Backbone:
């Protein structure tokens, strides 16, 4: 199904639902005549998944789900020299963590596998042979040394280096002889002039002429591995990919890919190139910036929803630009015809704000709050360990109360185990003299507050009620300033001199814990 008509001006894009029939040529040839949307994310495992990769995967995922299609993960590992151990696993782990798991992948399997290119080498060689037989490709025996000389010469003449296509002109007999002698060789694709304009869903009609800017490109390298171009086209065809959504840096290669599709007698997929994702100041996001690895965001307590929200918020493809969207909303609001060619400027410094919104959302939902309670219990145990003198602070009710009272104030769950909030988990040991030193009425003040809390039905109290009661307290202890009463209570409740307001502390701790701590303070 070609989901979009040719472009006749930016506004002329409209989805057509009619099925585009194409024979299934993958392992399940002919299976299911009705074409479905099938998109893929094809990272090279040369590093762990980073924010740019997550964004490409996400747009593919959203597009697939919007159109009832499948999202495929294909590991493009044909450049064996650049493989990073663990990267392929990390990519799939992180897609799962982000809540956008592939339907077909190395881990999931699927009807068009294997999903690692290094396991599909025979297929590429077979298609490369087809190209050779059709005279669309040829063996090239030029040595790396000759290519280097060509390059140097071009640079000396201030020209763009390109292969001079010399081996195009070898006779069949010359080729046979050299192959028989075991001469090292590559297979090159014969780039012909006269490429048709490329119709991209985002960039519109693009007239690119690869033959005028480069020599015949290598399809199969001397080590027998295919290059990205061959493997990509062969796989997109055999995996029945209907739409290719990828970064705009691949746009120039696409013209070459279309020529390859033609030479192999295949219909190309529909292409949509996503504009660049840049830093806020327009500079390039580097894959090498370790802090952009998804696993680092995850370790630092950022939620997947916040990452999905921020990368789509700065990009296009949606009716409005509002933050706080979750995946279901992204899917329902996505419209590929709204993707513009403007670069997406990522405001990473706003990530904490995005996270706060999504954490609040999770806390407010009873179901996800339940998981957060468990997560926070584990975090508290991990961070405070032996310092936890009383198991009561690990009770689900207590932890849940803390979450409900702190929602909207914290940006990450981790904030709740930072020193600022340690009072929530560690009961202070404050010597009674310290309280008495602040006010000779210290003991009475503490007892009064205990009674106050005990008198509230179910211990429930609103912040306004609490604040006015605390104010009223001062009237009874005219010898002690309000600020001193607060200092005293803060000390008794947390052992700290500074921190959140006393009312806030009391609300987070809850009546039981407040009474326990104030009683404790006057016993010691
Ligand atoms: N392996 C390429 C990459 O790492 C995939 C490009 C494509 O999607 O065609 O970006």
Residues:
């Amino acid at each position: 199904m070609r989901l979009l008509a040719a472009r006749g001006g930016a506004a002329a894009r409209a989805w057509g639902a009619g099925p585009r029939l194409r024979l299934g040529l993958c392992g399940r040839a002919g299976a299911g005549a009705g074409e479905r949307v099938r998109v893929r994310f094809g990272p090279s495992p040369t590093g762990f998944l980073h924010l740019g990769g997550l964004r490409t995967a996400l747009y593919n995922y959203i597009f697939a789900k919007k159109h009832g299609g499948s999202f495929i993960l294909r590991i493009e590992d044909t450049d064996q020299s650049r493989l990073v151990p663990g990267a392929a696993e990390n990519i799939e782990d992180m897609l799962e963590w982000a809540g956008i798991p592939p339907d077909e992948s190395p881990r999931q399997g699927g009807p068009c596998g294997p999903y690692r290119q290094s396991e599909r080498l025979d297929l590429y060689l077979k298609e490369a042979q087809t190209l050779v037989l059709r005279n669309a490709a040829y063996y090239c025996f030029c040595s790396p040394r000759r290519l280097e000389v060509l390059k140097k010469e071009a640079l000396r003449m201030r020209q763009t280096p390109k292969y001079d296509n010399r081996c195009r002109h070898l006779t069949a007999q010359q080729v046979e002889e050299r192959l028989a002698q075991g001469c090292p060789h590559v297979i090159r694709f014969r780039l012909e002039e006269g490429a048709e304009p490329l119709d991209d869903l985002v960039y519109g009609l693009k007239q690119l002429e690869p033959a005028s800017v480069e020599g015949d490109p290598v399809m199969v390298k001397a080590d027998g591995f295919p290059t990205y171009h061959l493997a990509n086209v062969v796989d997109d065809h055999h995996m029945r990919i209907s739409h290719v959504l990828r970064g705009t840096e691949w746009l120039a290669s696409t013209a070459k890919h279309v020529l390859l599709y033609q030479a192999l007698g295949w219909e190309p997929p529909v292409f949509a190139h996503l504009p660049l994702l840049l830093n806020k100041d327009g500079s390039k996001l580097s894959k090498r910036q370790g802090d952009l690895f998804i696993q680092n965001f995850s370790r630092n307590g950022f939620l997947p929803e916040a990452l999905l929200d921020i990368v789509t918020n700065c990009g296009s493809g949606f009716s409005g630009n509002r933050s706080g969207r979750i995946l279901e909303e992204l899917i329902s609001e996505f419209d590929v015809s709204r993707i513009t060619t403007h670069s997406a400027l990522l405001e990473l410094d706003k990530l904490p704000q995005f996270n706060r919104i999504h954490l609040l959302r999770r806390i407010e939902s009873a179901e996800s709050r339940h998981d957060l309670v468990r997560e926070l219990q584990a975090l508290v145990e991990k961070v405070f360990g032996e310092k936890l003198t009383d198991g009561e602070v690990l009770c689900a009710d207590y932890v849940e109360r803390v979450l409900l009272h702190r929602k909207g104030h914290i940006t990450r769950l981790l904030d709740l185990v930072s020193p600022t909030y340690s009072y929530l988990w560690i009961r202070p040991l404050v010597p009674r003299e310290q309280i008495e030193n602040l006010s000779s009425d210290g003991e009475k003040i503490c007892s009064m507050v205990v009674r106050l809390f005990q008198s509230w039905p179910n211990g429930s109290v609103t912040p306004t009620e609490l604040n006015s009661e605390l104010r009223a307290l001062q009237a009874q202890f005219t010898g002690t300033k309000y600020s001193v009463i607060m200092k005293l209570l803060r000390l008794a409740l947390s052992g700290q001199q500074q921190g959140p307001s006393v009312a806030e502390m009391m609300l987070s701790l809850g009546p039981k814990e407040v009474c326990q701590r104030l009683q404790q303070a006057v016993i010691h």
Summary: The first helix runs from residue 51 to 66. Residues 367-424 form one domain. The radius of gyration is 32 Å.
